[in-house]
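Lest this sound abstract, we let one protein speak, letters for residues, whole numbers for local backbone shapes, and leave readers to judge:
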Amino acid sequence: MNLRSLLSAAMSVMMAFGLLFASTAFAAEPQPWQLGLQDPAGSIAEKATSLHNMLLIIITAISLFVLALLVYVCVRFRRSANPNPSKTSHNTVIEILWTVVPVLILVVIAVPSFQLLYYMDKTKDTEMVIKVTGNQWYWNYEYPDEGVSFDSYLVDEEDLGENEIRLLSVDNPMVVPAGTRIKLLVTGNDVMHSFFVPSLAVQIYSIAGRINEAWIDVPEGTKKYYGQCNQICGVNHAYMPIVVQALNEADYAEWLLNAKEEFASAEVPSMTLMASAN
């Protein structure tokens, strides 16, 4: 292969990487042949990813240690090398070790686990509220402080536009201001659904007659975060994706202004309920 061919191949590889980066720089989505978790977005996702990586190291070390013990026992105590087996039934040191060491490992795992659980429960420190309602088979997003409510449906494959993703793009994403802590009030109208956005590390069930709380802190930057319902909820379970669109402050204010006009005729469930109660 001559120098020109090498340069041409190198340029092709660089262009491929450039196209890949361009398509994923402004979106958090699953990738072909992906291994591991999606890149974390927000403090919850970062803490969850850190815990996942620590657990991966621990379980790998345990698995290798057990494998080494099995290999040692198979070789050391095989019939040809050990024709007269030992009659030992107790070993105090070993019994203490196989009790104490697993307890210490569980303590090491428990401390960051409980820290993350309590951190995920801090919904009172949020800056805005969005109500999420699961339906067969679409999502409804309500901004109770703004009087805005709209439905979010999957974009059919034949209607996909440029940079839209098959089975993941929606007509009306949940739009949020970047750099904001958001409380999610999640409920359902029929069967059980699950609001799951991997890159934001949020997964919470929507159950009819019950409101579950969660929160996300969306990082700075204009970006889309993709998710799906991962609770088997019926024949169209695979066709109710989730898109969280983060915008900067100015763009979000403009979107909100347009949303109040576009969805002005939409009935806001919470407001209707409050009016009937009064």
Observations:
- Residues 6-25, 271-278 have pLDDT under 50 and may be disordered.
